[in-house]
């Protein structure tokens, strides 16, 4: 569409050039100054048909009709001349809007004074017409920001030039004034048509914002007259959609929140996109009619003729009954009806600056797949979610949405954030059931990359490399993919079938897996030698060491070890030390084994690292919480029988038959990484630059082994970032330069070739 639009721009320019200077083909209608209007009509019909906003469709209909009839058909088929004042080169043909001193000129100035610049720029201007129809394909290129806003003052130079034309045309012409006026119209023509060709860079309104002398004239009347755009800050929810939809780049939200109105009103051409796009009716247009009808409120609902929409409350997925779910390891949430998922997705406001996307480490296109889900197109929604995330169905289950996407949702402070996590999970599941799945790339480019570690970082890296046509093999010492997701997250939070389904999809897309394979120094050196790049995503699975007396007693377990147990503990007491999601997982697992469970957190209730959702379901399942309990020692004779805490009021002992240490994890990379030229910091984390490159060429890393224990989504973001870097580093001339830097010999392998089912000490996943 953009190429088609560019061709139309070119044809309009050549038509003007032909009538002005070239004089080819005896000035045919398809190659003269009227060519532009024919193009506006053709593209305008398409835009009117495609436009979904009722008010904008009406405006486009009037705009295209006015340009076609007033600017094209009447001057071409039945031209009539306008009266004027002054000394013009020739008698102007109606409409002589841009010609100073004509009747049309004065009438439009009066209309703009009463109703604002919109009566011409928004509804009856060929300059805007071609940019609203042909240039629509470049709307998303509008330059925004402080400097773009400050530079708008360049138009006042052209305005002063135009004022000079108004003045000199009131006196009999001479050689100087003729040159002055001729230069003005030449500059207008060149800037007007010239900005067509920078639209792919600057957006469709560059001329209107920075160069148009007529718009500047009408803009001053916006200030002088009755036109105004106001913002009610009590209704505004700060979604900033008004700023996003403004092609003129006006900081509508910023000015409205600060002053209660748009102060840069001279740049407002009255399209009302900001007003009709406001989800809370916080914006309204005012003009001379408000002088006689003070109660008139021209907000979005008024302009769109909308009836009030009933408020849809946030409804979270319903969990299974407590008595039922504590007896098994099945996931606890019931899938809502499709209609309910669509209704909840429709709550998304599609903010101009989506806080949800900003709050997501993966920058997921949340409003886009929300819109698809709201109309019931779950395959499209899943495809959009998959475009930025390798594991959307996992993120929907495990991400702490309360402090990421949902915590940044503009509806959070009003009537509850959109249920982003739940919808992300369910749209992907429904799409799978409908047969959707990412296919294999159309071609392979010959590059080969090895990924060590099948956790979130490794899988994300492998997925995005595979999409780019790179041949990828993923190595992991476990028998299944997922890393900690597979054995560190209990099934009642992440069913194992989810990972099995995702593995099948990865394999169908062409990713190869070498599972049950331990990668040691020799194997890693061989992988580096045999591949264009190697990514290390081995995570952190070593329990954090805490110098706690008695931790070696029988009955004391590390969190991961305890989560893998299935021994009945009916009637036993389990004390979990920790304050994160892993601690809650262990306590809930203990309840399913028949034990009573208490979480002892050093911090207060308001400083828990665990998500409120997990705390809520844990309490429902009978988990108790003790806050301000700092463990001093594990007590017991021959076996753990309790924990001694420093608490408010002094030292106290709590009885326990089983003690679980859930203090988190820390990095433990193999010492031989240094032999391969890979540097680590004092905590054992691998050093990388901002794009995942390690200190050893062709070796990349990301995830918890770089950042320390963190979220699934941040590990996935690191994997994707490294994949993008690998693709860039191994493409074209970069690949050749990169290869020259690797002429130093690789460390000699000291073991047999890499094979599945090895049992060598080294890097796991």
TrEMBL record:
InterPro entries recorded: 4Fe4S_Fe-S-bd, 4Fe4S_Fe_S_CS, DPD_II, FAD/NAD-bd_sf, FAD/NAD-binding_dom, Helical_ferredxn
Gene3D superfamilies: 3.30.70.20, Alpha-helical ferredoxin, FAD/NAD(P)-binding domain
Domain 4Fe-4S ferredoxin-type: 227-256, 258-288
UniProt keyword Iron present: yes
Domain of life: Bacteria
Short name of one Pfam family: Fer4_20
PROSITE patterns, sorted: 4FE4S_FER_1, 4FE4S_FER_2
Membrane-crossing segments per the record: 33-50, 57-77, 97-116, 156-172, 178-199
Keyword annotations: Iron, Iron-sulfur, Membrane, Metal-binding, Transmembrane, Transmembrane helix
Entry's Gene Ontology molecular function annotations: iron-sulfur cluster binding; metal ion binding; oxidoreductase activity
Protein's recorded name: Glutamate synthase
Species: Sulfurifustis variabilis
């Amino acid at each position: 569409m953009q190429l088609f639009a560019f061709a139309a721009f070119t044809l309009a320019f050549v038509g003007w050039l032909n009538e002005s200077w070239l004089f080819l083909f005896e000035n045919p209608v398809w190659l003269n100054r009227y060519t532009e209007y024919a193009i506006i009509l053709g593209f305008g019909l398409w835009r009117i048909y495609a436009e979904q906003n009722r008010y904008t469709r009406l405006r486009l209909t009037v705009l295209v009709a006015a340009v076609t009839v007033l600017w094209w058909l009447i001057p071409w088929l039945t031209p009539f001349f306008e009266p004027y004042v002054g000394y013009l080169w020739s008698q102007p043909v109606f409409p002589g809007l841009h010609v100073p001193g004509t009747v049309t000129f004065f009438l439009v100035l009066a209309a703009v004074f009463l109703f604002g610049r919109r009566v011409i720029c928004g509804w009856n201007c060929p300059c805007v017409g071609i940019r609203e129809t042909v240039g629509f394909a470049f709307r998303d290129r509008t330059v925004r920001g402080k400097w773009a806003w400050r530079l708008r003052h360049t138009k006042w130079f052209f305005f002063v030039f135009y004022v000079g034309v108004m003045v000199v045309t009131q006196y009999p012409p001479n050689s100087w004034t003729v040159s002055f006026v001729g230069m003005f119209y030449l500059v207008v023509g060149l800037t007007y048509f010239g900005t067509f060709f920078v639209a792919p860079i600057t957006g469709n309104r560059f001329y209107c914002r920075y160069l148009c002398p007529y718009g500047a004239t009408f803009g001053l009347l916006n200030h002088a007259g009755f036109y105004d755009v106001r913002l009610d800050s009590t209704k505004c929810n700060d979604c900033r959609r008004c700023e996003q939809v403004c092609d003129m780049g006006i900081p509508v939200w910023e000015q409205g929140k600060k002053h209660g109105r748009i102060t840069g009103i001279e740049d407002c051409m009255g399209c009302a996109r900001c007003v009709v796009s406001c989800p809370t009716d916080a914006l309204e247009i005012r003009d001379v009619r408000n002088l006689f009808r003070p109660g008139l409120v021209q907000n979005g609902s008024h302009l769109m003729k909308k009836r009030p929409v009933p408020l849809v409350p946030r409804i979270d997925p319903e969990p299974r009954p407590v008595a039922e779910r504590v007896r098994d390891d099945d996931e606890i949430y019931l899938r809502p009806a499709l209609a309910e998922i669509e209704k909840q997705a429709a709550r998304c406001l599609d903010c101009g600056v989506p806080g949800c996307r900003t709050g997501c480490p993966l920058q997921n296109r949340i409003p886009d797949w929300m819109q698809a889900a709201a109309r019931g197109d779950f395959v499209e929604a899943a495809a959009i979610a998959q475009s930025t995330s390798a594991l959307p169905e996992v993120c929907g289950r495990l991400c702490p949405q309360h402090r990421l996407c949902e915590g940044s949702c503009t509806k959070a402070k009003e009537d509850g954030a959109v249920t982003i996590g739940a919808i992300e999970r369910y749209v992907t599941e429904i799409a799978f059931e409908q047969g959707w799945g990412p296919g294999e790339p159309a071609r392979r480019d010959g590059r080969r990359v090895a990924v060590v570690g099948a956790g979130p970082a490794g899988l994300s890296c492998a997925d995005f490399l595979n999409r780019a046509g790179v041949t990828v093999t993923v190595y992991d010492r476990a028998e299944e993919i997922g890393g900690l997701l597979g054995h560190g997250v209990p099934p009642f939070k992440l069913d194992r079938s989810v990972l099995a389904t995702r593995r099948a999809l990865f394999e169908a897309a062409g990713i190869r897996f070498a599972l049950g394979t331990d990668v040691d120094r020799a194997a890693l050196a061989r992988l580096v030698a045999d591949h264009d790049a190697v990514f290390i995503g081995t995570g952190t699975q070593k329990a954090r060491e805490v110098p706690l007396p008695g931790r070696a007693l029988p009955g004391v377990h590390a969190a991961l070890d305890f989560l893998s147990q299935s021994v009945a503990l009916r009637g036993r007491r389990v004390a979990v030390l920790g304050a994160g999601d892993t601690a809650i997982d262990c306590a809930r697992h203990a309840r399913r084994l028949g034990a009573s469970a208490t979480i002892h957190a050093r911090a207060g209730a308001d400083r828990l690292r665990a998500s409120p959702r997990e705390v809520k379901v844990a309490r429902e399942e009978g988990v108790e919480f003790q806050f301000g309990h700092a463990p001093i020692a594990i007590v017991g004779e021959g076996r753990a029988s309790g924990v001694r805490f420093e608490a408010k009021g002094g030292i106290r002992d709590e009885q326990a038959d089983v003690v679980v240490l859930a203090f988190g994890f820390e990095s433990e990379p193999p010492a031989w990484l240094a032999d391969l030229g890979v540097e680590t910091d004092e905590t054992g984390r691998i050093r990388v630059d901002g794009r995942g490159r390690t200190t050893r060429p062709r070796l990349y890393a990301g995830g918890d082994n770089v950042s320390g224990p963190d979220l699934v989504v941040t590990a996935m973001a690191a994997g994707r970032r490294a994949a993008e870097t690998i693709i860039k580093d191994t493409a074209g001339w970069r690949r050749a330069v990169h290869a020259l830097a690797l002429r130093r010999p690789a460390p000699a392998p000291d073991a047999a070739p890499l094979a599945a089912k090895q049992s060598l000490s080294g890097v796991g996943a």
